Amino acid sequence: MIRLAILAGDGIGPEIIAEALKVLDVLRGEGLQVSTEAAAVGGAAVDLHGDPLPDATLELCRRSDAILFGAIGGPQYDVLPREQRPERGLLRLRKALDLFANLRPARVFPQLAAASTLKPEVVAGLDILIMRELTGDIYFGEPRGIRIEANGERVGFNTMIYSESEIRRAAHAGFQAARRRHHRLCSVDKMNVLESTQLWRDVVTEVGREYPDVELSHMLVDNAAMQLVRNPRQFDVILTGNIFGDILSDEASMLTGSIGMLPSASLNATGQGMYEPIHGSAPDIAGRGIANPLAQILSLAMLFRHSLDRSDLAERIETAVEATLEAGCRTADIAQAGEKVISTTQMGDAVASALARGRT
Ligand code: NAD
Asked: Is 52 exposed, middle or buried (0-12, 13-18, 19+ CB in 10 A)?
C-alpha cells in the first residue's frame, strides 16, 4: 500500500489539490493501492494550531512514501512573528526531511508554445529538467554577515562552500534523473573562478564513471544562462548547485510562459519526496474557482516517477494533461484571446476523464 501525505495549505492550495485527488481516484478505481491522509500546513495550520508545521503534520510526512503539497502563504500571515509564518513551515519541513535534491522540469506543451516570450520555434517541444542542490552552497555557508572595518566601512560577506559528500549525493540524484529521461546530463559550475565549483566539477566527473550510460558534459554558468535562451532544447538534465540552480531554474520556468503549468519535486537520499507546484498560494484568485490545477496534477505525475518508480503512471497523467490541452481546455491563465475559458474543477474533470479513457 502506497501512503501519501496530502498537505493542501492556503489560498488556491486546497482548490488545486482537490483536482489532483480526482486524478488519483481514477488510478485507485483501476486498482492502485494507495492511502491518503491530509494534514494542516502553513497559514491553515497557524489558524488551527498556532504553528505552520504542527508535530502531527511532520510525523505524518515522515511515515509517508511521498508528500503532495499545495501552496502556502497569504497577506494575512505576513504580520506574524517570523517563526509562525507559513513559509517557515515549508522550510522546516524541507530541512526535517533533508530534501536536498530539487527537481524542476520546464516543459512546453506544444499547444501552449505561443505563451512563451521566446519565439515558438525556439521553445516548441522544450522538455528539460533542472536538478538544483537545495541545502548547501553560499545560502548556508559560514561565516556570513556584515561587519564594520577599522576605518568604519561596512563589508558584507558569505561563504560559498560544498563538501564532497554534498556534491556526491546531488550528482547521484542528477544522474538517476537523467537515466529516467534521455540519458544526458550537463553539470553547470564556475570552475574557472571558484574553487568550490572546481571541486563540484571533479566530484561530478568521478560520480559520472558510475553511470557510463549517461552522457556527461560541463558548462560554465554564464554560458548556461545564455544557452537557455539561445537554444534551450540542447539540454536534457541540468545539474547545478544551490545559487546557480535558483537563478537558472527561474529562467527556465519563464521559457514556458505559464507559472500554473510547472511542477517540482524535492527529494532526500531515500527517494522520499515532496511534490508541489512552483507557484505560490495566489491569494489574488483564491476562492474564485479559476486557478489552473495542472501544475498540481503534474506534481502528482512527478511523485509517481521519482518516489514510487511508476514512470508508466507518470506518463499516463502527462499524456492526459496533453490530451486535455489538445482538446482546447484552458483556464484563464493559459487562454489566448478569444479562447473559451473553463474553471479549476472543469479542468480537473477533463484530465481525470482523459486519464480514464487513456488506459491501455
Ligand atoms: P504566486 O505564485 O502565488 O502568484 C503569482 C501570480 O501568478 C498571481 O497573479 C497568481 O494569481 C498567478 N498564479 C499562480 N498560480 C496560479 C495558478 N495555478 N493558476 C492561475 N494563476 C496562478 O506568487 P505571489 O503572489 O508572489 O505569492 C503569494 C503567496 O504565496 C505569498 O504568501 C508567498 O509567500 C507564497 N508563496 C508560496 C510558495 C509555496 O508554497 N511554495 C511559493 C511562492 C510563494
From this structure: buried
Closest C-alpha residue for ligand 1 atom 10: 282
How far CA 39 is from CA of 25, 49, 162, 170, 266, in Å, comes to 19, 11, 35, 29, 19
Q: Is the pTM of this model over 0.85?
A: yes
- pLDDT tens string 33-79: 999 999 999 999 999 999 999 999 999 999 999 999 999 999 999 99
> Per this entry, what is the length of the chain?
360
d(Cα 100, Cα 169) in Å, to the nearest integer?
Answer: 9
Q: Are 122 and 232 in contact (CB under 8 A)?
A: yes
Given this model, what pLDDT does residue 83 score? 84
List the one residue out of 139, 135, 245, 144 whose CA is nearest residue 186. 245
Nearest CA to ligand 1 atom 26: 280
CA distance 199 to 306: 27
CA of 58 to the centre of ligand 1 (A): 23
166-177 in b/e form (b: 16+ CB < 10 A) is: bbebbbbbbbbb
Domains of the chain: 1-100+268-360 (3.40.718.10), 101-265 (3.40.718.10)
